[in-house]
Each structure stands twice: as structure tokens, then as C-alpha cells.
């Protein structure tokens, strides 16, 4: 058996960390847009919630170290239907992450290469990472590690330039921003909205649980710790730096919302720093695409093993990759990109609600594991208070994101989410209940077509009866000792012209007359040569007259026009005459 290379701490952290650490590109600006000068506080609250989820994920996956994340947690504590609901949300989250991350990555690259066609380049990027994952998870991990190290290195360079800039210019801008009047009313409301938006910055934290089987023993909890440290340091720090560099109205403008880190780099270090951040953004968002492919592969493999998805998805290549899952997910992602015509911001509702719902369901799975599977050994335990606080925090963030009004007459988050969620959950439910649905289809077909089937069967039976009745009509041939060639012509004639499967060959011998030599043997030969026709040879003593023919016709119940007479040496059946009501061949 081929040895499977498990992922090390660095590789597993890089695969998940590229997704969660890419949030620094947008979450600081997003939190500032809603929380203003209190954005860094909301990001610290997010860090605290994520700390609670470290214990929650650690306990569940430690007790059930299988791929599937929230699906796996609920499958072992509730029903397969409930677990399938979590799987659907996770699948939608990965789909939205892949499409949004790829599209945003190309937009950042477009900052350096303006003529680049966005949609075509996005499709190319999705395809590159799909085929990279098909090449094997070890090869994918090497690319993820390279992206991860480059990303952290770029952020360290950016932080160094910002610190040097602030050392020279002071923090007066931060103080002015701190005293800026709030746009959204009270501090509580600002922090609530900022926290709700900032919770999107932990997307990717759940990914490690979806490919835990590919990680070396003991690696999973380390990935959670590493991701928590990255998010807790980078995101609040960048929010503080942004507030120290630019006035709050500038930070809340649309231009800075999309490219905040590039603007920060350009402000403190010039265009080359801005270009470095643009390249870094392209790479780390591409890494988030890679995370989506790896995570969805682990999830769908588990669904296929549990017979929710077809076993079609379990086929692997020589590298051990479930290439069919990856190709189907690639096609799905490209179709969504084309359907939205590149305006992937419409997927924000899918991304937001599905991701936060998965986090909440994982917390619920932890509670159910404590209650129903308390006997399972686990390396660590999350406290009841910690689990309840974490679930409550995620629900608050979910409510906050749903309540945020859409911009520019765009559809609401809930409507966009339902647009994708309903067909997906219907497909999953159909797969889960496919035997029941097939039985229903079978009953429906039976009900609709049973009268037709009965008519066909009845008609078939009656027609066969008529055919058999016709074929049962016996054909009588009188011979005076024809040779086998003449008899064979009779058989050929009967086969071509008469509707019968029975023939009676009759010879009439006058008193003292003997049977022609070899006649019985020749008839026996013909009987074997024409197995589809039953030949009966009859010898009668008497005088061959029309009266005898009439008597035999009544006895055998054969109409006289079905009785033929042949003569030795005659060429049968070239000349037919009528004599005494009997068709004679003479």
C-alpha cells in the first residue's frame, strides 16, 4: 500500500492560514466602516470569541478526528439530516470563498496589470489551483507554505515602514480619530455593527477541521493556535495603524474600503510597497482559493463515504486526490462567477450567513457531544460557559449581518443566501432520500401506466392466442412415395405460404401394396431439418378417392383446401388444379 504523506504543522497552518490571514486585506476597513475609531476593539472581541472556539473545535475534533467539520460533529450527535444541513452551509461557504477570493485576487493583480480581463483571469486562477490540488495535497501544501511565508513577510515589511513613519510623524491622526463623532449613534451600536462585520475576519478557521485526516497526529490543535495568534495580532494592529495614518472620513470612503493596505503601503513607503502589497494580496487570496479546494474535498469525501453524495466522488488518481470532486467544484465555481457576471459582491450574503451558521452549528455540536457522547476520550474540553458565550457571539454577529441594509438597491444578504441555499439543500436532501424518491417514482409510474400495461399484456396474450390458433391449423399432404427433394419442396412451400407449424404427411396404400423404400427415413430426416414444423407421418390402407379425403378431413378437422396431393416425379408445386373440391398438385 502506498504511504500517504500527512501534513506537518507548517503545511496545515499554511493551507488554513492563507484563508484566515487574507482577512487582513478587508476586515480592518470593514470594521472601521461600521465601528469607526472603535474598530480595533471589535477586532479584539473577535479574537476573544475565536479563542473560545479554539477549545470548542479542539474538543470536538479531538473526540472525533474525522473530516467534515460541523457535519462530522452533528452526524455523531444528531441525525444525518441535521448534519446534512451543516454540510450544505459549509459547501456554500467554500463556494463563496473560492469565487470571491479568486475574483478579489485578480482585482489586486489588476492594480499592477490594468489591461488584464477580470473574468477570464479569475477562471484561469480557479483552474490553476484546482489542478494543483489534483496533483496531490503535498504539492498543494508546498505552494501554500510559500504563499503563507511571503504574506507574513510582506506584512512585517509593511508594519516596519508604518512604525518608522509614525515614529517620525507622531500619532496625532489617531487621537483626532478617537475624538471623532460617531456616525452610527451610540458606542454600543457602533461596536455591535463593527463586531458583526469583523466576524468575517475569522473565515477559514473552520477549514482545518475539514481535512484533519490529512494532518499528522497532534497537528490540528496547533493549527488552531497558530491561526488564532495571526488573527489576534494582525487584524487589530492594522486597524490601529490605519486610524493613525488617515482621517476617519477618508478610511470610510469606498476607495479605501477596497484597497486599504495598498493605500497604507503607498502612504508610508511609496509605490514599490504598494505593489508589494498588491502582489501579496493576489497570492494570499489565491491561497484562500486553495484552502477552499482542499476543504471541500475533505468534506465531500466524507459525504460520499456516508452515502449522502454518490460514490462517484470517491474515485482517486495516482496522487491520492479525489479529482472528480475538485473538477465538479471548479465547474460550480466558474458557473457562479459567470452567473453573477463577475459582480461577486452579490455572494457576500451567501458567504456571511453560511460561514457564521457553520460556526454556530459547530458550537451546538460541541454541546451535544458533551451531553450524548460524554464517554468519548478527548484531549481537551471547552467549558460550558465558553461554549455558550461563543455561540451567542456568533448568533449576534449573524443577526447583525442580516440587519445591515444592502447598498445601492442590491438584494439583501438573506435573499441572496436563500437563492443559493434552497436548491443546494434540496439536492442534498434528494440524495439523502434518493431510495424513497425512487420508490415514489416507481409507484407513480406504476399508477399512471398500469392500465396501459394491462392493455398491452392482454393484447399480447390475445394476439398470441390467435397466432397459435392459426399455426395449430394442420396441413395435410398426401404422398405416393415422393423422393426427398419433392418432399423438401413441400416443406419449403409450407414454410413460405402456409400459416402452420404442423404438417401431416399421409400415404395411402392399396391392399397388398408396400411402403416406398426410405420414405420413413426421409420424413424423419425432414423432421429434424425443420425443427420449427412438427411432422406427423400417417399410413392408411384403402383407395385414394375424394370420398376418403372428405372422411379424413372430418376426422382430423382439416378443411379440404388445406389438403394437398403430390405425385411421384411431378415438379411440386408448379401446377395447381381443382378436382372434387380438393386442391391437387399433380
Automatic annotation (TrEMBL):
Primary localization class, coarse: membrane
Membrane topology according to the record: Multi-pass membrane protein
Membrane spanning residue stretches: 25-53, 85-106, 118-137, 144-167, 187-205, 226-252, 272-300, 321-340, 346-369, 381-404, 416-449
Keyword tags: Cell membrane, Membrane, Transmembrane, Transmembrane helix
Lineage top rank: taxon: Bacteria
Matches recorded under Gene3D superfamilies: Amino acid/polyamine transporter I
Cellular location(s): Cell membrane
Pfam families the UniProt entry points to: AA_permease_2
PANTHER family: AMINO ACID TRANSPORTER-RELATED, MEMBRANE PROTEIN
Protein name: APC family permease
Organism: Aureibaculum flavum
Record lineage: Bacteria, Pseudomonadati, Bacteroidota, Flavobacteriia, Flavobacteriales
Amino acid at each position: 500500500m502506498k504511504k500517504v504523506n500527512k501534513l506537518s504543522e507548517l503545511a496545515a497552518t499554511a493551507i488554513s492560514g492563507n484563508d484566515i490571514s487574507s482577512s487582513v486585506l478587508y476586515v480592518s476597513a470593514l470594521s472601521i466602516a461600521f465601528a469607526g475609531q472603535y474598530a480595533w476593539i471589535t477586532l479584539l472581541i473577535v479574537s476573544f470569541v475565536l479563542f473560545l472556539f479554539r477549545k470548542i473545535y479542539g474538543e470536538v475534533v479531538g473526540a472525533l478526528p474525522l473530516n467534515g467539520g460541523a457535519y462530522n460533529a452533528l452526524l455523531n450527535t444528531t441525525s444525518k439530516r441535521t448534519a446534512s444541513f451543516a454540510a450544505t452551509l459549509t459547501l456554500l461557504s467554500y463556494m463563496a470563498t473560492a469565487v470571491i477570493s479568486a475574483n478579489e485576487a485578480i482585482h489586486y493583480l489588476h492594480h499592477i496589470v490594468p489591461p488584464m480581463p477580470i473574468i477570464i483571469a479569475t477562471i484561469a486562477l480557479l483552474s490553476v489551483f484546482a489542478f494543483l490540488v489534483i496533483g496531490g495535497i503535498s504539492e498543494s501544501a508546498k505552494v501554500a507554505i510559500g504563499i503563507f511565508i511571503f504574506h507574513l513577510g510582506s506584512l512585517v515589511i509593511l508594519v516596519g515602514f508604518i512604525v518608522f513613519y509614525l515614529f517620525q510623524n507622531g500619532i496625532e491622526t489617531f487621537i483626532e480619530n478617537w475624538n471623532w463623532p460617531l456616525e452610527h449613534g451610540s458606542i454600543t451600536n457602533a461596536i455591535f455593527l463593527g463586531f458583526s462585520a469583523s466576524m468575517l475576519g475569522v473565515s477559514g478557521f473552520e477549514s482545518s477541521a475539514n481535512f484533519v485526516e490529512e494532518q499528522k497526529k497532534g497537528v490540528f490543535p496547533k493549527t488552531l493556535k497558530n491561526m488564532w495568534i495571526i488573527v489576534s495580532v494582525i487584524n487589530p494592529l492594522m486597524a490601529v495603524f490605519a486610524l493613525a495614518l488617515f482621517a476617519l472620513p477618508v478610511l470610510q470612503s469606498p476607495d479605501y474600503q477596497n484597497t486599504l493596505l495598498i493605500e497604507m503601503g503607498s502612504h508610508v513607503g511609496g509605490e514599490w510597497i504598494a505593489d508589494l502589497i498588491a502582489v501579496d494580496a493576489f497570492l494570499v487570496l489565491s491561497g484562500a482559493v486553495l484552502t477552499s479546494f482542499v476543504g471541500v474535498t475533505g468534506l465531500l469525501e466524507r459525504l460520499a463515504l456516508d452515502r449522502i453524495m454518490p460514490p462517484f466522488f470517491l474515485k482517486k488518481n495516482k496522487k491520492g486526490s479525489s479529482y472528480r470532486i475538485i473538477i465538479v467544484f471548479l465547474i460550480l465555481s466558474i458557473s457562479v462567477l459567470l452567473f453573477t457576471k463577475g459582480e461577486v459582491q452579490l455572494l457576500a450574503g451567501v458567504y456571511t450567513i453560511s460561514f457564521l451558521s457553520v460556526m454556530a452549528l459547530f458550537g451546538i455540536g460541541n454541546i451535544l457531544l458533551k451531553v450524548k457522547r460524554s464517554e468519548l476520550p478527548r484531549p481537551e474540553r471547552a467549558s460550558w460557559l465558553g461554549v455558550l458565550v461563543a455561540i451567542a457571539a456568533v448568533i449576534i454577529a449573524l443577526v447583525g449581518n442580516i440587519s445591515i441594509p444592502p447598498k445601492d438597491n442590491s438584494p439583501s444578504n438573506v435573499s441572496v443566501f436563500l437563492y443559493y441555499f434552497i436548491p443546494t439543500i434540496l439536492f442534498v436532501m434528494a440524495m439523502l432520500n434518493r431510495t424513497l424518491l425512487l420508490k415514489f417514482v416507481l409507484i407513480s409510474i406504476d399508477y399512471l401506466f398500469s392500465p396501459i400495461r394491462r392493455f398491452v399484456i392482454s393484447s399480447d396474450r390475445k394476439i398470441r392466442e390467435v397466432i397459435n390458433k392459426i399455426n395449430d391449423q394442420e396441413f395435410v399432404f398426401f404422398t405416393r412415395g415422393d423422393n426427398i427433394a419433392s418432399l423438401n419442396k413441400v416443406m419449403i412451400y409450407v414454410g413460405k405460404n402456409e400459416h402452420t407449424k404442423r404438417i401431416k404427411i399421409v400415404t395411402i396404400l392399396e391392399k397388398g401394396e408396400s411402403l416406398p423404400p426410405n420414405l420413413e427415413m426421409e420424413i424423419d430426416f425432414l423432421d429434424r431439418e425443420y425443427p420449427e414444423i412438427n411432422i406427423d407421418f400417417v399410413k392408411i390402407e384403402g383407395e385414394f378417392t375424394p370420398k376418403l379425403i372428405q372422411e379424413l378431413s372430418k376426422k382430423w378437422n382439416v378443411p379440404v383446401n388445406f389438403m394437398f396431393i403430390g405425385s411421384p416425379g411431378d415438379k411440386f408445386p408448379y401446377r395447381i388444379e381443382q378436382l372434387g373440391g380438393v386442391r391437387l398438385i399433380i
